[in-house]
Amino acid sequence: MRRAASVAVCALALLAGSGVEARRHGAGMHAGAVSSVPAPAVSVAEATAAVVAPPAPETHLFAAAAVPQGAQINVEGPNGWVLYKQCGESWSNDELGTAAGVTICDAGCAMSSVSMILRTKGANVNPGTLNSWLREHGGYEGGDLLVWSAPNAFGVAKMTNYYHGSASMSQEALQAAISAGHGVVVNVRNGGHWVLVTGHAGGSTYTVNDPGFSVNSYTYGEMSNFVVYA
């Protein structure tokens, strides 16, 4: 196991998209291992032809939150889901979207979580290549605010629901989505960070792939804002 330390903050931002939140959230530590991925892979180039215009903006604001960083352990993604990390990787210092001075390591947790879903489902992407693709295809609003539905163009997973707020997606619905193999990205750490839910550990505890911290589970009570890709 390797450890690395870094300091950054995780910031919330305005959404973009008709019923689709655009978020900039930060950031973590060190690299993760990638599990096996089913074929066939869908390349960035192949997805380009299917791109549609980004949705119209709306005006919904969540409170800002700063999340201090700690030591990060290099861990493997559970339950077959690919694990990517924001920091300590070749893409970590890439500019997030078109936001000057903001990197994937600083604030790319939402995008990194979505890249895990796409890669697991067969798209040949990582946070670096997905970030570049989103930048060129209307995947960001306001510089670095992720348009959740933009990755639908890859054709391997479609953003189907956004549940706003704590307990907005019931535990029954969350567990059903997990059992169906759907990707669910959730807001944690008082709204300051995004992670991918990978399994149900029992009771109100769920396993996650966290792109920024050495945590591998959160409780239902710590979650809010559930984004579902089916």
Question: Can you characterise this structure?
Answer:
Helix content is 18%, strand content 19%. It has 230 residues and is of the alpha+beta class. It has one domain (3-229). A 6-stranded antiparallel beta sheet has the order 5-10-6-7-8-9.
Structure keywords:
230 residues, alpha+beta, two-stranded antiparallel sheet, 5 helices, 18% helix, globular, disordered N terminus
Q: What's the quick description here?
A:
With 230 residues, the protein is an alpha+beta fold.
Strand elements, count? 10
Shape: globular
Q: Classify the beta-strand content into a percent band.
A: 15-25%
Tell me the count of domains: 1
Unreliable segments of 5+ consecutive residues:
1-25, 27-40, 48-76
Global mean pLDDT: 77
Distance between the termini: 33 Å
Number of helices: 5
Estimate percent helicity. 10-25%
Strand line-up in the sheet with most strands: 5-10-6-7-8-9
Radius of gyration (Å) = 16 Å
Q: Which structural class should the secondary elements be placed in?
A: alpha+beta
Strand count, sense and barrel status of the largest sheet are: 6 strands, antiparallel
Fold topology:
Elements: E1 3-4, H1 44-48, E2 72-73, H2 104-107, H3 109-121, H4 127-136, E3 140-141, E4 145-146, E5 159-163, H5 171-179, E6 183-188, E7 193-202, E8 205-209, E9 217-219, E10 224-229
Antiparallel strand pairs: 1-2, 3-4, 5-10, 6-7, 6-10, 7-8, 8-9
